Amino acid sequence: MLKSGIVKLLLLIVLLALVGCAEGSNNEGTLCGNQVIDENEECDDGNQMENDGCSSDCQIEIGWVCEEEPSICEDSCGNGTIESGEDCDDNGESFDCNSNCTLSRCGDEIVNTTAGEDCDDGQETEECSANCQSKACGNGIIDSGEDCDDAGESATCNANCTQAECGDGIVNSTAGEDCDESEATETCSDQCTIPNCGDDIIDVNEDCDDGGESATCNSNCTQAECGDGILNLTAGEDCDGAGETVTCNANCTEAICGDGIINSTAGEDCDDNGESAACNTDCSISVCGDSIVNTSAGEECDDGNTNNSDSCDNNCQNNISPTCNAPMTTLYANNNGFGGAMFDVVSRKNITITHFDTNLDTGTREIEIYYKLGTHEGYETNSGAWIYLGSTSVSGMGIDIATSIPIYFSVYLPTNTRAAFYIISTTSGMKYTSGSTLGALHSANTDLEFYEGTGTSDTLWNSSFFSPRIFNGTIYYNCN
C-alpha cells in the first residue's frame, strides 16, 4: 500500500510539470521571471524589476552583461570595452561618451560635464539653453531675452546683456563712457562724458565749445561778442569792458586819443586820427584861446587869454615886434653846479618869455620850472609863492653845451616888470657859474635885463642854497 501511494505522488508531479510546460508554450512572455531563459528572452533573473541588468520583459539592459540560469547580471558600462548594447565605453564619462555608455550629444537629456554641459533638458527651456548651458547673462551665449552676451561688459554689449549705446542709461566704461543719464544733463553730456568747458562738446548750459577760445566762442564757452565783458584775443579784441570804458572803446579796441574813435568816457570830445581843423591833438574841440596851438586850424599861437597886446593876438596869430632882440644867452662857462638855479629878470619892453635852454651834464635829467612875479630873494623855500610851469625828462648834451628844455609857456611881462624863475634838475647835473654879487646885473639888451641869482641842490624847497650863482642858459621870448 505504501508503494502504491508513492507511485501516485510521482505521477501527480509529472502531470503538473506537463501542464506548466503546455501553458508556457502557449502564452509567450508570461514565464519571464521564472528564472528560465525561455523563447524570446535574453535573460531571466527571477524578477521583473528594471535597472538591475535584466529588464521586466527579460531583455538585457544597456550597459549590462547577463549569464547563466537564473541570469546573473553585471554592469559592464565603464569597463573600457564596448559590450552589446553600448555605443561607447571610455572607462567613465568622456567628452564623446556619457557615463551610461551612450554617445554624448547636447539634447540627449544626459548632463555630460566633461563635454562642457551645465544642463541638458533635451531641448531649450527657461533654465537651459539649446547648447546645454545654464541660462545666465555673462555666460558668453546669447540666450532668449538677451541682445548680446560677451561674457561680461564689452564695447558693444553692456554687463546686463543689452546692446551698448550712449543714452541707454547704463554706464559702459569699456565703451569709453564716463556717465550715462539717458539724455544730456548738467552732470553728463549727450556723448556720455562729464561736462567740461573746453572738451569740444557743447554741453547743457554751454553756448558753444570749440575746445578752447575761438573767434566765435569764448574760453568760458559763451558766444563771443564784443561788449560781453570777456576778452577774446582770437576774435581780435584788445580789451572788453562790457561797453565803453576809460581804457577800452566800444568796439573792443584800446582807447587812445588819435585812434579815430570818440571815447567820451575817456574825456574825448572828438578824435580825427590826429590834429584836424576841428579837433586838437588831445581830442578836445579846437577853439582859439584854448591854450593849444592847432596849426591845422591856422593858429600860429594860442596863449589862452584875451589880451590882444601880448605876443599872441585874439585870432591866435603872432603879435611880435620886428625890433625884438630875442633870445638872450647868459653864458655857457660853468665852474660850479648841482641841482638848480633861481634868478631874476626885468623887462625893458613888453615881452613874453616862452622857454629855456640850459647847461646840463650828460644823462637823463628830470626838469621842473617855476616862476613868480617879483624877486626870488627871500622866497627860496616858500613853495606857495611860486607858479608851476611844467616838467619833463631830457637827455643832457654835456657840459657847456646848450640843452633844450621842451617846456613851453607864455609868461607875459609888461615893461619894467621884475620876475623870478626857478629851473631845477631833481636828478642833479645842472651847471652854473659862481658870481660876484647876489642881485647884480649880469647881462642886458634893449628888451631884457638878467641878474645874478642863487644855486640850489636837487631837492625842491628844502634844498641847500648857494649864492651868488649865474644861471647858464638861453632865455627865449617874444616882444609885443
Number of helices: 1
Q: Which second-level CATH architecture of the domain at 328-479 applies? A: Sandwich
Mean pLDDT: 89
What general form does the structure show?
rod-shaped
Rg on CA atoms, Å: 63 Å
Task: Give me the count of strands.
Answer: 17
**Helix and strand composition category:** mainly beta
* Unreliable residue stretches: 13-29
Largest sheet entry: 10 strands, antiparallel
CATH class of the domain at 328-479: Mainly Beta
The percentage helix is under 10%
Describe this structure in a few short sentences.
With 480 residues, the protein is mainly beta. It has one helix at 2-26, and strands spanning 64-67, 72-75, 328-329, 336-338, 340-347, 351-359, 363-373, 387-396, 402-405, 411-413, 418-425, 430-434, 441-444, 448-451, 453-456, 465-471, 473-479.
Give your account of this protein's structure.
The protein has 480 residues and is mainly beta. It has one helix at 2-26, and strands at residues 64-67, 72-75, 328-329, 336-338, 340-347, 351-359, 363-373, 387-396, 402-405, 411-413, 418-425, 430-434, 441-444, 448-451, 453-456, 465-471, 473-479.
Helices and strands in order:
Elements: H1 2-26, E1 64-67, E2 72-75, E3 328-329, E4 336-338, E5 340-347, E6 351-359, E7 363-373, E8 387-396, E9 402-405, E10 411-413, E11 418-425, E12 430-434, E13 441-444, E14 448-451, E15 453-456, E16 465-471, E17 473-479
Antiparallel strand pairs: 1-2, 3-17, 4-12, 5-11, 5-14, 5-15, 6-9, 6-10, 6-17, 7-8, 7-11, 12-16, 13-14, 15-16
